Amino acid sequence: MTILDIVTYPDKSLAQPSEKITDIDETLKTLIEDMADTMFEAPGAGLAAVQVGVSKQLIVINTTEEGQENSYMALINPEIVEADGEFISEDEGCLSVPEFRATVKRFNRVKVTALDVDGNPMELNEEGFPAVVLQHEIDHLKGVLFINRISALKREMYKRKVKKWMKGR
Ligand SMILES: [Zn+2]
């Protein structure tokens, strides 16, 4: 089991779009397993490769049911192909944005296409919270954080808080 370091805001790499994956090799499979371990350990609902310093279009989603063994899904080159409705995501948080939560307006339903770990095309249709997790993680691959989707005022408050921490170090 390998726990990877999580990159946190304001690291500039989090604002960069990730590259499409062309080779699904052993290195990538190891990365997927390490990302899953890191997500379970945190714990988090999902994790994007850019959050562990790898700028590739890869996300893992926590599919563990309460009281059950840990399980996850990996999505390579995921893309939202359909989205509708509105979902108010309350208390949304991010492992890369510590000590901050906010309400974010999301789509209620999304259809996502991706490749699985064996390179086979897959399609997901999710609604509500699982749809929010997919939108949040796929945003990471575009260099978008949830704090880019809240009011400028709230974002400034968080930025000031981070600046204070960094001075205190
Ligand atoms: Zn996040």
Automatic annotation (TrEMBL):
The UniProt record lists the EC number as 3.5.1.88
Q: Does the keyword Protein biosynthesis apply?
A: yes
Cross-referenced Pfam families: Pep_deformylase (PF01327)
What detail does the entry give on cofactor binding? Answer: Binds 1 Fe(2+) ion.
Report the active site residues.
137
What residues does Fe cation bind to? 94, 136, 140
Catalytic activity annotation: N-terminal N-formyl-L-methionyl-[peptide] + H2O = N-terminal L-methionyl-[peptide] + formate
Necessary cofactors: Fe(2+)
List, in alphabetical order, the GO biological process terms annotated in this UniProt record.
Answer: translation
Question: What are the record keywords, sorted?
Answer: Hydrolase, Iron, Metal-binding, Protein biosynthesis
Its domain of life reads Bacteria
Q: Which InterPro entries match?
A: Peptide_deformylase (IPR023635), Peptide_deformylase_sf (IPR036821)
Q: Does the UniProt entry include the keyword Iron?
A: yes
An annotated Gene Ontology molecular function = metal ion binding
Q: What class of enzyme is it?
A: hydrolase
Function of the protein: Removes the formyl group from the N-terminal Met of newly synthesized proteins. Requires at least a dipeptide for an efficient rate of reaction. N-terminal L-methionine is a prerequisite for activity but the enzyme has broad specificity at other positions.
Q: What protein family does this chain belong to?
A: Belongs to the polypeptide deformylase family.
The name of this protein is: Peptide deformylase
In its UniProt entry, the species of origin is given as: Desulfoluna butyratoxydans
